[in-house]
């Protein structure tokens, strides 16, 4: 097995490599003066089972292009099997035509990865499970839930915990976590009765006196999360913590979360945390390296990956 890392998340790649006890393959990703990406594999990969680690996080287009070019270099160097390991799959929120004359960019990205030469994909908490079907190659969608469950059980008396989905779209994910920790579930239902009117947050469930745990796949601007936290506290919640797989945290999101009423935002390292994230008083990162490493190892050994989540 060989592991090749792009530049999107070197720290995670190093952690995965040490979990597997396999060094990162020598591969140089350089830029020409006009910023075109150039890749050179500096060791033989002929006949090898290669795993390419790259999150297509900010800057999404650069990281995606880098992934495609690394896959192309591997294919042309006769790697036997290429698995694109994409802990954060960018463009996933464009998974349907929200209105006329718009693209389905998640499908386009799936096509690009496949046509570049990937034989398999390994990813984590896809925004929508159906995106797996956008690929015509085997695609394993891992879940951060076991890692989050462990962290929650270490910190909370689960008797008083209530899992909350910050919107109706996230109910399946939140229910799965609630089941794991044997906690009740609540849902924040956002409604805007007329265009231009402000959104009303209705909470389905009773959070009063509870330690609420908001669960979602992505925190981007932080709006969904901070608004949900306010609504839960207004309904008498004792505390609100959030467990979110992908800390996209664009623009002023870190400042927004830091000054919010969230007790803590826990994210995984699927996206490399920025200096601002690391310095934020109420944001903590937990590692998915052992989970990804184990899934890579099982893929290489042709063992079951789904049994990791049984
Ligand atoms: C939406 O469907 C996603 O699951 C997240 O709730 C959303 O992307 C979060 O975005 P933001 O942090 O900008 O509210």
From TrEMBL:
Keyword Kinase included in the entry's annotation: yes
Residues at which Mg(2+) binds: 127, 167
Pathway: Metabolic intermediate biosynthesis; 5-phospho-alpha-D-ribose 1-diphosphate biosynthesis; 5-phospho-alpha-D-ribose 1-diphosphate from D-ribose 5-phosphate (route I): step 1/1
Active site: 190
Entry keyword Metal-binding: yes
Subcellular location: Cytoplasm
UniProt-listed Enzyme Commission number(s): 2.7.6.1
Reactions accelerated catalytically: D-ribose 5-phosphate + ATP = 5-phospho-alpha-D-ribose 1-diphosphate + AMP + H(+)
Role description: Involved in the biosynthesis of the central metabolite phospho-alpha-D-ribosyl-1-pyrophosphate (PRPP) via the transfer of pyrophosphoryl group from ATP to 1-hydroxyl of ribose-5-phosphate (Rib-5-P).
Name of this chain's protein: Ribose-phosphate pyrophosphokinase
Organism (species): Stappia indica
